[in-house]
Amino acid sequence: MARIIDLRSDTVTTPSPEMRRAIAEAIVGDDVFEDDPTVQRLEQKTAEILGKEKALFVPSGTMANQISLRTLCQPGDEVICERGSHIVNYEVAGAAALSGIMLSPYDGQMGKIDVRQIENAIRPPNIHHPITKLVALENTHNRAGGLVLDLEYIGEVENIARSHSLSFYLDGARLWNAAVALNVTPKAIADHFDMVSVCFSKGLGAPVGSAISGSAESVIKARRIRKMLGGGMRQVGIIAAAALYALENNYGRLDKDHANAKRLADGLQSIDDISIDLNNVQTNIVVFEISMPVDRFLEKAAEKGLLVVPFGNNRVRAVPNLCTDDDDIPRAIDIISEVVSGN
Asked: For position 1, what pLDDT does the model report?
């Protein structure tokens, strides 16, 4: 059977034999009672890497975001965020439905809202208005094509948030990729924020799991909210072991995914009927435009053994990942070329 090249996401990876061994050998306890030693190791290591007091293991990135928003806000509060962000587009209006929080999205460029726009969006006290409580950023920014928010920009937004006594939150599902691209430690990014979420099941290749990190007080509150939302887990060390293995062994190879994304983008640039901006390929995500119906493109590419996802009108996303072989990139380029040329 011909090999399927799966570039739909960095979430499609499967555990390696070594990761499966870590899962099988995990020492477990009851995490709701806070006595699962493997979870404790993962949370401690995550907090240390991010430079925070505590961390909390949760089932998914969406839950991490929703718990963080609820921890930092009250019902009726307002969150300033970028219109393309994950919390706006991919979380089923959870902030409103679960916590009574109003998201106020603003159009950004390359994942960034202009800092003057952020400052102008902060509402003065008024009985008719929601209370502006939080500014939320996403790094890397998925819908912007994996673009990186640089430390200078983050610092400027932080200064605005602090000057208005607002909380500052980072959806860092792909913070690991951002740190590699910026050649800084994850802590250098996380230092700017009150709370940060990170994902173990994207670039790091664990089968499931994310974490929230912040002050000890905020994580105590987050733990209670996690339980309220159904995220309290029992012998979850078998999952945490995979995340811990991923964190300890797979962070150092993320630059390979970035290099494969660059190789893919370079190859696509030379194909007629493909439009791509190489400047926008900064991490592991490649977004390109095609001149044929997306559904038709996806169907034909799948028939030839390549899986990618639609990303808007005439746009497609491909994400090299832990399971991408060296030979997969040139083959993917060939398949895309064949499909758009009608072969």
From this structure: 60
